Amino acid sequence: MSESAMKVDAHAVSPPLPSAYGMSLSDWEEWLSERGQSKFRAKQVVEWIYRKRIASFDEMLNIAVPLREELKKTFSMELLPVSKISGSEDTTRKFLFRLEDGRYVETVMIPASVSFVGERSDRITLCVSSQVGCAYGCKFCASGLAGFTRNLTAGEIVSQVLTAERETGERVSNLVFMGMGEPMANLKQLTKALEILNGQWGVNIGARRITVSTSGLAPQIEKLAQVSMPVRLAISLHGATDEVRDRIMPINAKYNIDRLFQSLAVWKESKKQKITFEYILIDGINDDLEQARILAKRTRALRAKVNLIPYNTVEGLPWERPSEARMQAFQSVLREAGITATLRIEKGHDINAACGQLRLKEETSEGLIVSAAAS
Ligand code: SAH
Ligand code: SF4
Q1: 20 to 30 A Cα–Cα from 347, which one of 25, 35, 68, 244?
Q2: Confidence (pTM)
């Protein structure tokens, strides 16, 4: 038997342990109470994991040795191994993580930057992935081109944050689900990860500093609206009419704009924060000023805001961003209608320019070649 075949066999006998980072406080309470432990023990466990950030169960000094041994046999405390970090100290950093099954995902860290009004902001935003690939096939998106492989587990989502923090020594203040994948299509793991990331006992990132971005899965938007966490919602709209959206986003055939807006009304009933519409400007595709006028109407009705994003070219796709003048004209229509609309032309400054267009291009026996459409 060849060496690699033997490795596969060994793997088959002992499947990987579930990640300790995919457990919420109540999951720990349940697991521990089944073993005759008090609730207080769960507090101690999460304190070690998230406050003290220990690397192994052996470090849980106030937990009795037999229980530590059982924890070790049941859960993994491995964070995601980092295959590559690109970027420099003071700019966007990209992490390539290798998952247990040999797949890869990316996470992007956008460190402290100078804000629009010129004052320093100490915000550190992390853009996390929710799936390997994406099944929704938007015509402009590199992640969509790659196709869908699998959902990430809550542990893998949480690990992206913990590893980025460990590698950089920084604390993430803001989180956006704008990396690879459609988070709403992985709702169960997303909700669990949100619970852990937001929990004061956990990673402790304020819900208002967490944004979930979706291409418009209406029923899932309605479900997440029921979760009592004031997270923010961003909608990748990219077209103000069904005609335009149908052309570039296959999801629109399933949930058209009216259906999508119905779900946004449900969202608004339970969440106070403004919804953001992400609108990529693509030359000759969705940059017509009539689209801007319709977008203005729809945005006003919801009291939402608009984030205009110049399209970043994707290898293999023919599209380009409109001229600067054209993009500014589009923004002016919105502004004149009283809509808050941002347009960030600087390349790589905007979070959406940094993620959402990464494609895992080619897998080889040596590893993986990643092509970032824009950096
Ligand atoms: N699937 C979710 C989450 C991914 S977010 C969603 O679509 O919302 C990734 C963001 O980057 C989305 O707003 C997406 O529309 C945007 N994006 C994709 N391709 C892009 C490109 N070539 N240039 C600029 N933004 C792009
Ligand atoms: Fe998937 Fe979002 Fe890309 Fe569409 S824009 S293909 S939903 S990741």
Answers
A1: 244
A2: 0.90
